[in-house]
Amino acid sequence: GGTSQIAVRTGANLILASEAFQLSSVGSGGQGGQGGGTFSNTSGNGGNGGQATGGTSRLLAQGGTITGNSVTIAALGLGGSAGDAGAVELVNEGTSGVRGLGGSGAGGTAIMEVQEGSPGIITLGDTDMTATGFNGNDDDIPTGLGGRIEITDTSSDPAGLISLASLNADAQGGAGSASGFFMSGNSGTTDVAGGFIVNVAGDAVFTFDADGQLSVGGLIDIDTPQNFIITHTNRAPGYDSIISGDDFTARHITLKENLII
After folding, report:
1. What is the DSSP letter of 84?
2. Which among 244, 213, 75 is positioned nearest to 144, based on CA atoms?
């Protein structure tokens, strides 16, 4: 899938003016070829679909400012479709070969990040981040390898913040060693005005330090078959680690070190 990156550095201001903007690095496997046909023998087997791995899509404010409406950051892995068996002349009692196998698909890494650079600001509307892996013959349910989604704020400037209208983070499939959702912050609040929905194959990990925190105005829904882990070191007095303005739904939760929700 390669790497697709937008990096806005100190002093720069980027406005994503379109109503819907997409930053993507999608890996797509080739389709398997069709087997050769036959009149009275067995036709050729279909070819297997190609393997695919999503790349890295990264939206970075390194001291600069990024403002946008609806934004999608995608790192999908789309395995190629299987090839069909060759055609058969049934009048002459030919026999069909075997359809090929769908190619494997593995999601890549979708990243949103604010770095030191005084201040580093990201302000977006409804935001989708996706790193799902689809095998070649998948329909609506992905059976590939789920990728990784990261949201990080390491700017020490109090104005260096991430603010979203809503977030939908999706990295489904099977779980690999790097699969999951990872949010970290050590300076100020990551603010999501509406819903905050995470659906991933791997762990969902939230790591905060000092006055870093997540504040959500709507519901929070963390869906993972693995672990939901929250850590908050050096938590500043009066700061909750995660704030939810509506229902908070999660499972397999592990709470660590001075955590308050």
Report:
1. P
2. 75
